[in-house]
Design brief:
The complex is a heterodimer of chains A (about 300) and B (about 350). Chain A is mainly alpha-helical. Chain A has a single domain, classed as Orthogonal Bundle (ABC transporter involved in vitamin B12 uptake, BtuC), CATH 1.10.3470. Chain A contains 13 helices and 2 strands; from the N terminus they run αααααβαβααααααα. With about 350 residues, chain B is mainly alpha-helical. Chain B has a domain of about 230 residues. In chain B, helix 4 crosses helix 11. The longest helix of chain B is centred in the middle third of the chain and has 30 residues. The two termini of chain B are about 15 Å apart. Classes of the chains: A mainly alpha (about 300), B mainly alpha (about 350). Chains A and B meet through helix 3, helix 4, helix 11 and helix 13 of A and strand 1, helix 6, helix 11 and helix 13 of B. Chain B: It is a multi-pass membrane protein. Chain B: Its main location: membrane.
């Protein structure tokens, strides 16, 4: 039973990562490495909390969080897509901005509790039928609505990327924007759409932390999870389904130190902290050494596309 | 139809005007945010100025903030010149500090000059190795170095955390998780508030200027950055060039680790970098990968950093405001680069030119 508890907690801890990772996947699929994930999550987390605290309405809070993340992404999109600015530098700047933004606007809310109405709304709900499956039901189907929505998103984003014309175009732009442009795909429009959607998802990931995961607003609620999400994209090899598994694995590592202490297990907690990064490096090396092309990063990842260079 | 066309070259005067314009626009926007926070923006900017230049001590603090940023930016610049996206300066910085601390722990009784020399050497080697690993995989297997170096930052950070909280924890610190302060023979001597790392930095700047602009390897790095095919065609050994550039780039970032613990913080800890490794990437990029501009921009960012810490204490304005102002300035400069590099024309004009 304890183990089921642990896994259920791992799913919860991994959900914020899952939102951000799904977002970053669709951004990277269109060729844009956005290192501003941490910043956009921070913006979503703080705006989500402020909106929730002010309006007391869970849906308003979530919507504002998504908009805040999307606004951050829009700055990034404007600079990298329209103004051809360097993606790495712009992304890092966005992270600096988001961290400062959250620290500044969240300052007066530190120590405040999430309103009752929101906590109640996001309480774990046991689903009928699915929730009765032994083990699986307790782990996956006795969770918050926020977690259930992420399940739907995984499927939706998988369908979007691999089963629709838009997804095909998106992937084509990430692999070869020259060819995509030549075949009449509006490259910039696709880029804007994917990048801004990525921002909204990162915002949702951040707000999951500030509205569901914690009960009292801390000084730094995201505290580096955005970077873990960037790792997770590679670890999942740009695949939404694997991102889900990876998110729960990294989520488990996130809470592992607490459980290790609880049971006095003789394992270094530093190993657990470093494991997401070590595992990611391993995946990165493995895929590049074996030249597995369909599991590698999009060919134009990080490079801007300039039409007139064609 | 509107077209965006690459400009050949911009005049230096235009470059300066547009950048200054971008900074001013950013400051106007920042002023609005500051006013929103309930402070007087004009007073704040005067505060930043006073915090940086108000006294010899404050000016010393500004230079102290500039030194690590400048050397890190120079390091990052070398790799960027080769189109090798080293965003692992943060990790190389930390590993360099680990290397320097290791010398002190193994040979605590060396005389000061030899001690400093060994610390600097090992810091350089540790930083260099931390970048040569991804460089090797990039050259051999084409492994994405942006992602690899990013991961290595966090691996280094966890490593230093483990050292600080466990393996190298100072038993004399009453349970406080800290690494013991360096002994006197491992500290950079300072003259009236300015420590010796400033002198070394001046030397590094000069050496790097010649390395990048006058040396054969500097030329090879630049060619390789422009086009790998050209480099291969004129007979440059690509693997060797990549590894050497990575060694210099990572080594310089590692050296900063030694400067920082030996000249500023006095001990290795997870806080020594203060995110400077990331700021350095931005500085190097905004400087167009040119040494004189790296020096200029490092100074500008040092003013922002020092000004931020001053207004925090003097005006009780949270330091996060400075972070935001810094980011807004960067956004504007990044945007203004577009005006410098491209121009917008209509079809009609283009035909006339043709």
């Amino acid at each position: 039973m304890e183990f089921v508890f642990f896994l259920s907690a791992a799913v919860k801890a991994g959900t914020c990562l899952l939102y951000a990772t799904l977002g970053e996947i669709i951004s990277e699929k269109v060729g844009h490495l956005n290192l501003g994930v941490e910043g956009m999550m921070q913006m979503g987390a703080v705006i989500g909390f402020i909106a929730g605290f002010t309006f007391g309405n869970p849906l308003a809070a979530v919507l504002c969080a998504a908009l805040a993340g999307a606004a951050g992404a829009l700055i990034y999109a404007l600079l990298t897509v329209s103004f051809k600015a360097n993606q790495t530098v712009t992304g890092l700047t966005l992270s600096i901005f988001g961290v400062g933004f959250a620290a500044f606007f969240g300052k007066t809310f530190v120590g405040k509790k999430v309103p009752e109405a929101i906590t109640t709304f996001f309480q774990p709900i046991k689903l009928p039928f699915l929730g009765d499956i032994p083990f699986i039901g307790d782990i996956f189907f006795n969770q918050s609505v926020y977690v259930y929505f992420s399940y739907i998103l995984v499927i939706a984003i998988y369908l979007y990327l691999y089963k629709t014309k838009w997804g095909l175009n998106t992937r084509m732009i990430g692999e070869n924007p020259v060819a995509a442009d030549a075949s009449g795909i509006p490259v910039d429009k696709y880029k804007y759409f994917n990048i801004v959607l990525c921002g909204a998802l990162c915002g949702l990931g951040g707000a999951f932390l500030s509205l569901v995961y914690i009960s009292v607003y801390p000084v730094n609620v995201v505290s580096g999870r955005g970077w873990i999400a960037v790792c997770l994209v590679i670890f999942a090899m740009w695949n939404p389904g694997k991102a889900m598994l990876g998110a729960y694995f990294f989520g488990a590592l996130d809470i592992a130190s607490f459980w290790l202490q609880k049971y006095n297990l003789p394992v270094s907690i530093y190993l657990f902290t470093a494991l997401p990064y070590l595992a990611t490096v391993f995946v990165l090396l493995f895929t590049s050494m074996r030249k597995i092309n369909n599991k590698k990063e999009p060919a134009w990842l990080g490079k801007n596309y300039f039409k007139e260079d064609r | 139809m509107i077209h965006i066309v690459k400009k050949e070259v911009s005049k230096t005067r235009d470059k300066i005007l547009i950048r200054v314009g971008a900074v001013l626009a950013a400051l106007v926007l920042s002023s609005i945010i500051v006013a929103f926070a309930g402070a007087n923006p004009i007073e704040l900017y005067i505060g930043i100025f006073q915090g940086c230049f108000g006294s010899i001590h404050r000016f010393g603090a500004t230079i102290e903030k500039m030194v690590p940023l400048l050397v890190l930016s120079l390091g990052v610049m070398v790799a960027f010149k080769m189109q090798f996206w080293n965003i692992g300066a943060e990790g190389q910085f930390l590993m360099g500090a680990v290397g320097a601390t290791l010398v002190v722990r193994l040979l605590p009784n060396l005389p000061l000059p030899i001690m400093l020399l060994c610390m600097a050497l090992l810091a350089f080697i540790f930083g260099a190795i931390w970048l040569m690993i991804p460089a090797f995989f990039k050259a051999r297997f084409g492994t994405n170095e942006t992602l690899f170096t990013l991961m290595l930052n966090y691996i280094a950070l966890t490593f230093v955390t483990a050292l600080q909280y466990d393996f190298w924890k100072d038993p004399a610190a009453n349970g406080m998780p800290k690494i013991a302060n360096l002994p006197g023979n491992a500290l950079l001597p300072s003259i009236s508030g300015f420590n010796l790392s400033i002198l070394f930095t001046v030397i590094i700047v000069l050496v790097m200027y010649f390395f990048m602009n006058k040396s054969k390897i500097g030329f090879e790095i630049a060619v390789l950055g422009e086009s790998e095919n050209t480099a291969r065609y004129i007979g440059i050994n690509i693997t060797k060039t990549v590894i050497i550039a990575a060694m210099v780039s990572g080594g310089l970032c590692g050296l900063v680790g030694m400067f920082q613990i030996s000249g500023v913080s006095g001990a290795l800890s997870i806080e020594i970098t203060g995110g400077l490794g990331f700021t350095a990437i931005i500085v190097a990029w905004l400087s167009g990968l040119k040494v004189p501009f790296v020096v200029m921009n490092s100074f500008f960012f040092a003013i922002l950093l020092q000004g931020a810490s001053y207004i925090q204490t003097a005006f009780q304005i949270p330091g996060s405001v400075a972070e935001m102002v810094q980011a807004i300035v960067l956004f504007f400069i990044l945007g203004s680069e577009f005006i410098l590099q491209y121009r917008i024309t209509s079809d009609k004009k283009k035909r006339e030119v043709a």
